[in-house]
Structure formats: C-alpha cells, structure tokens
Structure to design on (102 residues):
C-alpha cells in the first residue's frame, strides 16, 4: 500500500481518484477518454488512503467529500461525475460562442 502525500497530489494536472466497482468512476473516465483527455488515475485503498483524499480536497476547496470519483483537470478541482458533466457542457458552450461575431 503506497500512501501518497498531499504534496504529491497537488502535483497532478489531470487526476481522477476512483475506487473499484464504482460505476460513476467508470463513466467519468469514459467521458475524459471520449474527449482524448489524458489523466492519471489513483485508486482508493491501493494508491491512496481515503483520509488523504479527504484532507487534500478539504485543503483545496474547504469542502469535505466522502465520495468518488474526485476529478481535477488543468490543476482545477472539478468535483464528482455530475460536476464533470456540467463542466464539460460549459466548455462546449464556451467553444460554440468563441468565434461568434456580433
């Protein structure tokens, strides 16, 4: 069991913290795969203690989380699966309007 430190977690640009048999973790990774986003995966209980994950996200956001997946993209905390869906939809909306001339 390698327990990562918060300092190590901060170093990840794109990160998905998952757990075995977690359907939303699978869905979240599929969304990123479909977009060709490269990311690292850390598995709770194998790569990372849950207490470290909770402390890390508390430090980053001030929020206490107890669920997976926990997702970080471009070194920004996104949240869980539903947060990722909302984030990606906002990105698509932004892209659609980026070349829109008034």
């Amino acid at each position: 069991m390698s327990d990562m430190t918060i300092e190590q977690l901060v170093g990840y640009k794109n990160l998905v913290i998952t757990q075995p048999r977690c359907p939303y973790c699978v869905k979240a990774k599929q969304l990123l795969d479909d977009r060709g986003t490269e990311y690292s995966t850390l598995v709770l209980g194998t790569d990372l203690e849950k207490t470290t994950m909770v402390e890390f996200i508390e430090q980053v956001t001030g929020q206490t989380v107890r669920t997976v997946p926990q997702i970080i993209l471009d070194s920004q905390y996104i949240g869980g699966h539903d947060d990722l869906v909302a984030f990606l939809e906002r990105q698509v909306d932004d892209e659609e309007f980026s070349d829109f001339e008034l």
In short: The longest strand covers residues 15-18. DSSP finds four helices and four strands in the chain.
